[in-house]
Amino acid sequence: MKRVVVTGSGGQIGSELVPHLRRLYGAERVLATDLRPASGPLAEGGPFACLDVRDGEAFSALVRHFRADTVLHLAGLLSARGEKDVALAWDVNVNGSATALEVARQEGTAFFFPSSIAAFGPSTPKKETPQETLQRPTTIYGVGKVALELLCDYYHLKFGVDTRGLRFPGLISHETQPGGGTTDYAVHIYYEAVRKGNYTSFIAPGTFMDMMYMADALDAVVGLMEADPARLVHRNAFNISAMSVDPEAIASAIGKVIPGFTIAYDVDPLRQAIAESWPDSLDCSAARKEWDFAPRYDLETMTREMLDRIASKGGRAA
Ligand code: NAD
Ligand code: SER
């Protein structure tokens, strides 16, 4: 990657990925874009442009004028939000992503697509879910992720586009709040722990999902995009995860730092049903073998850092 365009950069991932890339590659070489105008580090730390990813002409022009060699396509609607507006989720997640991929083909750039644990469904093996297995998701978000995984592989095979993707687990971070997903509880719990010393979870105890700290997710994006293509047997998309946890496990890790922390439950049927349709834990051996994936944070180290950082901001989201 030498000159990078990032879509959906104002979200939970982009707001940290863009500054990370600007530190690595130089501020002027990373163009941040989003539907809405940005403020703060995103707009002030380097170039920024408004872009609706469904507008192929505007998208192509931006990529061409910036002389980008890579498009990191983050724009999208998360799982729970998608179930509440299926037509919009399809339009942005599928039509918008297909447009982004076509722009990459026309402009000759590499293309990164963030898939998800949501690309699996209830008929997928739940534990140590293999890299290649049944994918029959039951959310519109997951259906879109499978469609784009396949389309990205197709564009690589048919047109030679350098497409690469990750099946992200739930991402835990302290800069930008998550945008309406099922794993959001695993971020909210840390804020409430700092603010109030207790948390009411919308996901039930015993519901295991894969998670990862944002620092490891940023390293994974760069690691995959910089990987030697000769080593890549797979492309779209690699299973990655750093931990498989349920709400009790996170609460117990928080309790070691904030004694007396308590968790209660008020389960949301929509998000609980989504969580139950996803794997408990992923097999990440292909990512380890093909591009040396190696997350640095486990539940304990992530928990200490999350609580420290949120406390240093007085419990406020940025
Ligand atoms: P987010 O909801 O925090 O941010 C998404 C961004 O996309 C927002 O800034 C929004 O303004 C922008 N956007 C929406 N519609 C757009 C459009 N039409 N044109 C341009 N921008 C538009 O999402 P995120 O958590 O940063 O996730 C980014 C990507 O990673 C998504 O594809 C998501 O599915 C995927 N992912 C995220 C997680 C996670 O835990 N955060 C896990 C798995 C996969
Ligand atoms: N964190 C995302 C969600 O819950 C997973 O893709 O929607």
Could you list some keywords that capture this structure?
single chain, 318 residues, alpha/beta, Rossmann fold, UDP-galactose 4-epimerase, domain 1, 2 domains, 7-stranded parallel beta sheet, 3-stranded mixed beta sheet, 12 helices, 12 strands, binds nicotinamide-adenine-dinucleotide, binds serine
Detailed description of the structure:
This protein is of the alpha/beta class. The chain folds into two domains: 4-169 and 213-239, NAD(P)-binding Rossmann-like Domain (Rossmann fold, 3-Layer(aba) Sandwich); 171-210 and 242-279 and 296-312, UDP-galactose 4-epimerase, domain 1, CATH 3.90.25. The protein is 44% helix and 16% strand. The protein has a seven-stranded parallel beta sheet, sandwiched between helices. A three-stranded mixed beta sheet has the order 7-9-11. Strands 8-12 form a two-stranded parallel ribbon. Helix 7 packs across helix 12 (299-312). It is globular and about 55 Å long. The protein starts with a strand and ends in a 6-residue tail after the last helix. Nicotinamide-adenine-dinucleotide (NAD) is lined by residues 7-8, 10-14, 34-36, 51-54, 74-76, 78, 92, 96, 114, 116, 168, 170-171, 178-179, 181, 183. Residues 78-79, 116-118, 170, 181-183 line the site of serine (SER).
